[in-house]
Amino acid sequence: MLSKINSFGLNGIKGYRITVEVHATQGMPRFDIVGLPDAAVKESKERVTSAIKNSFYNFIAKKYTVNLAPADIRKEGAMYDLPIALGILSALGQLKEKVCLSDFIIIGELALDGEIRQVKGILPIIIAARSEGIKNIIVPCGNENEASFIEGVSVFAFKHLNEVVEFLNGSFIKQSIKNRDISGYLCEEAKYKEDFKFVKGQALAKRAMEVAAAGSHNIILIGPPGGGKTMMAKCLPSILPDLTVSEALETTKIHSIAGTLDNSIGVVTARPFRTPHHTASKFSLTGGGIGAKPGEVSLAHNGVLFLDEMPEYPRAVLEILRQPIEDNKITISRAAITVEYPANFMLVASMNPCPCGNRGSKTACACTPVLVQKYLSRLSGPLLDRIDLHIEVDNVTYDELATTPNAESSDKIKQRINKARNIQLNRFKDAGIYSNGRMSNQMVDEFCAIDKESDNLLRNAFSKLGLSARAYVRIRKVARTIADLEESEQIKTSHIAEAIGYRTLDRR
Predict the structure, then answer these.
(1) Distances in whole angstroms, Cα of residue 252 to Cα of each of 79, 105, 246, 359
(2) Mutual angle of helices 469-485 and 203-215, in 10-degree steps
(3) CATH code of the domain in which 354 resides
(4) For the residues 374-394, what does the mean pLDDT come to?
(5) What does each C-alpha distance from 231 to 105, 108, 303, 355 come to in angstroms?
(6) In the chain, % of residues over pLDDT 70
(7) pTM over the 0.85 mark
(8) Which domain holds residue 284?
(9) If you placed Cys at 140, which of 11, 111, 116, 189 could pair as Cys (CB 3.0 to 4.6 Å)?
(10) What average pLDDT does this structure show over 322-339?
């Protein structure tokens, strides 16, 4: 007897329908799974068999063939356990199907006792199923919170295989999950350990961090050890603008697939802040491995990727960042799969001016010019060209540490940033982007027009500093953000001058 159950698979953050076909026939008892299954899918026959028996259903020894269609796409993970088990019960006539199975998408991993365990990637699966017009979805109870944020579908969460069978047989009434408003969770103020009010001095660097956060611009801090570079970077989450609903859903999709989502909430409520160690490999940064999972650049989507002591990272690893910084996405190509993940992150980096860190400070530098040049050459010109703000951070004096009162708090800075970001959201409401830092060249011409005086200033800077075409565009983007912070419709000469002042490495 043949039965068919609908399920879903994932390719990156996009879901696609999988039909689980089960054929039970007389013959030598065996259990075959076909349709390009990976090891986890192949092992499901052991979990499914034990779960059916331990749920007190009659598992008859027959020849079972399970096909996961379409057969030319590789299937991964344990999420097909539940549909396979239901397909077997249906083929054996133990599932009466008082409801139409074709109206349901069924997903879940089974324990040996029949318990249904949570799986990864439920959010993108539900969104994809809704787009195909499927209104009923069965998921594990562990994914209930994550599934509750999607409207327009009826999601049923179950703990055990018995409950699902009884529900489909009509002997168990189950209410769908109540939808929750995601915006209510995004409005909750997060508590941060770091606050800009505790950063002594460094007025220029703090101003630059405010501009970077307001427009989602890439920034690098250059200065001696102990100047506060890392501390300011750790304070950055406290001033980042609030996530929009669409940004929160985009970010949650990625973290759901990667398995880093907090299931007690079910949605990402704050912008990600990722800090990979300098020993990170190329694959951990970009993504890959079994199933081409997302890497740090994608986990930082709509948030921050912080590289502390940037020159300590292998140059080959750093050069990988050039493409996602430019395109806001990354494509992972392997022999059996090609996956595209969004990677719209804000790059924040820090570095010392030389190997010992004391070059240009009051402490004598012990580095030779050759060592300094070798150290700085770890960062390529094309990579630095993609960073909007280059900021020099000096040592803090004793008087600044001992006598300066607390500076402006992160809450006050964030209020200005939220106002500036709201201006940008209105500006780009039909363009599919959220900040000035993500403008295309066409948008720069449209939204970053400058007057003749500003044009002359930028022309002189372009000539004297030897700026590239990319640096020219990025200066105009930063100037647009500075104007937004002042709630100015026009980009003024002072805005252009400030943006040029943030290109320290160009002046060198």
Answers:
(1) 19, 21, 10, 43
(2) 100
(3) 3.40.50.300
(4) 89
(5) 47, 43, 17, 20
(6) 97
(7) yes
(8) 196-407
(9) 116
(10) 86
